[in-house]
Amino acid sequence: MKILKLLDSIINRLAKNYTLWIVGGLVLLALVGYQLYAAVFVRLPEPPVYSNYFVLPPQRGPAPTPGASPATNGTTAQAVPPATSYGGKDQWTDNQRARYYQTSQGSLVMPYAWFRALEWRASREMFAAPHVQARYGLLPDNNPEYNKDLMPVGIVKNIVPDQYVENLGEGHKEWASISCAACHTGQIVYKGTAMRIDGGQSFWNFDKWSGDMVFSLMLTSSVPSRFERFCSRVYGLGDNARCSADAKSHLRQQVKRYFNSDLVDSAIIALLRHTYPTTEGFTRTSALGRGVNGEFGPWDPCTSKFDRHCYRNVNVNTGPVSFPPLWYTHEYDWVQSTTAIRQPLGRNVTEAWGVSVRVEVKDEAKRWAATANIDDMFWMETLISILQAPEWPAGVFGPIDQARAARGKYLYEQAVWDKAPPAEQAELPANPDALILGPNPDRPKTGYCARCHAPVFEPVGAYSSNTQYGRFLQLPLYRQEVMDTDPDDAKQFSSRQAHTGYLKSAFNGKDVVGVGEALTVCITNILNKWFNEHNISGECREIMQGHRQNLFRAPLGYPARPLDGYWSTGPYLHNGSVRTLYELLSPVSEREKKFWVGTREYDPYYLGYRNDSVEGAFLFDTSLPGNSNAGHEFRDAAPGTRGVIGPYLTPEQRLDILEYLKVLRSVQEYLDKYPETRNRLAQRTALLDAMSPFYENNRQKYGVWTWVEPGNKPESEGGFDRNVFCQALISAAKSQPYTATSGAQPSPSPSGSPARNGRQ
User: Is 327 helix (H, G, I), strand (E, B) or coil?
Assistant: First the structure.
């Protein structure tokens, strides 16, 4: 009883002690605040800033000559023959690489002065500092000759053309911008040696980068002392100076206008609606989902941000995909994770629009005006078109086991799986309205891997009657019930529709259109407006458009690409759900269900990044939507078993195939066999040489230091005359004429008419 009385006395005292309650409440509030802060500002790794690295050279020479079947114990040929010449460059110069790192596509992410003046999160560190940007997986570019502000690779200064400054540029001439290099520059590390991979898979955590940037600006605008420092930096007064009242008032008005822009609106709406519930993390992003949300979102008229009709074109997306490597993409018939885009230039405009190129859609008189830098995109695409797969760095990882590589080549190219379904059952059927060709009869029937991944030309005349430039490689598209890989990316994009809103007249009065038709109409109009504004027509326009029609489609399936250089592009499958290539050749039951993504440390034995729980690493959980690691499975099973594409491979056989993948060079070897494609590197090199005075070497021509974005300046200020530019392109094309294709008649193929499936 005494104990109960004592407890009752203590409780009564606590109940009457308001100070204690207040303190307890403050402690609880602090704990809740900390949890909210930790949820918004997720911890990020603190990697070393790898300013010292070497660039992996391209893979040269043919792959190993196939040895005899492993059962006969035959001898093998040398795995890595001497380098050969292909009649053109297959590697970038240092100047081209530096120019690529700092060339803008025209996206307007944040006014450049603000980006440079912004403090990171709740700290006093600068958001633009190289060591802070490295936390998001961006690479340093420490060459002050080309990058005086030491911006990271792919985060660049964009100069808005004067006619677009007030409306599309919100009154700002210079903007921080995203370029190709941010998503498509790779780097792997092994025991302290950093290896840069041109066109490789980026490590960028775009979701956290963009979210932190906007929240950092919100915090800055809310805290007077932070805003004071921000203002003094924006106006170049220094950290210890103070802005005038008028300067602060003007800057606050500009910040308010920025927060009311479609870019920030869409970011806030995405956060409130949980638009991207599957964490993207490092090495991947919801590319198609974010892209079309950014493009179609502003089409709907809105009376307020909370109008139920607002953002009907912003859909939830659970389909993050890995950043793909860029080598040989110019050779493929269609690109993107679901092979949705036909033309390289159209692909660039689409991607750039999705990451904040501003396009006028509301004002019909100005419609299709865009901040996209079309000529700069063409230069970058041409530069990318000479890329070859990277060479295995034997000096770092160790030499190739030639006997193992030859055994691997036999399994890859010659071994036969007697349970393999015929192409008519495995691939998507021909559908001219959906721009799908169907199975290619020239595809090999042998090889555990080659029957899907070997390069094969599309039929003569496919998609266009113009065959002068030669055919492209047809990537096979596999049915979902056959591959059984995660369906979300393809399924959500294929079913995507857009409410036309402001653009109803552009779609002949239709209220709703399919994603293929939406993109075809919009991108074609953006390109045509730019070409017409700059008086670019005829042969020059054909060269810049890559000799292809601007077509879009939305197939419900995924492609099988050639695997040259894919040893450097983990994690694997389109959604990055399989950590190593070894696991990709294993039964699903042997694959990791959870693994860490956050270290660049490479595993040269199993081919992929190590599973290290470093600070800030992202835990990849394959049980979450969009993250399935099922399908593409090698195991013993009954014919037609969903997701099983080959027989069980012993651990030794898996390692044999991995060894061959280190030296695989199927694409260029295939192109070199045919007169119509043998000269492509020389053709593209000629175009790059013609553009060199306008790009990486334009300082020599104009005598100015600021060579960034010359296409957006008048010639007197370091820009260039596009008539002169076009003449240089035409002369270069004539100096390396295209070899005519054979006299074979075009086979029946899609003609480019509007499709009923995916282009409606």
Answer: coil
Residue 736 near residue 682 (C-beta atoms within 8 A): yes
**Max CA pair span of the chain:** 107
β-bridge mates for residue 477, sequence order: 559
Q: Which positions ≥6 away from 318 have C-beta within 8 Å?
A: 276, 277, 278, 286, 488, 492, 625, 626
Q: CA–CA distance from 29 to each of 23, 25, 215, 610 (Å)?
A: 10, 6, 21, 39
Q: Please list the residues that pair with 644 across neighbouring strands.
A: 633
Give the up-direction half-sphere exposure of residue 655: CA atoms within 13 A in the CB hemisphere: 11
**Spatial distance between the Cα atoms of 108 and 158, rounded to a whole number of angstroms:** 7
- 351 with 292: CB under 8 angstroms? no
* Helix spans in 590-742 (H): 651-661, 666-671, 680-691, 698-702, 722-735
478 contacts: CB under 8 Å, gap ≥ 6: 426, 427, 428, 452, 557, 558, 559, 560
Name which of 500-514, 607-621, 626-640, 714-728 the model is least confident about.
Answer: 714-728
Give 106-124 pLDDT, tens digit per residue.
999 999 999 999 999 999 9
What is the DSSP track for 461-507?
TTT-S--TT---BPPPEE-HHHH----HHHHHHHT-EEE-GGGGGGG
Residue 679, SS3 per DSSP: coil
Per-residue pLDDT tens over the stretch 467-509: 567 789 999 999 999 999 999 999 999 999 999 999 999 999 9
Residue 366, token pair as written in the block: 């100005």
| Residues in a beta bridge with 193 | 190
**Residue showing tokens 């003449």:** 727
Q: CA-CA distance, 461 to 466, in Å (whole number)? A: 7
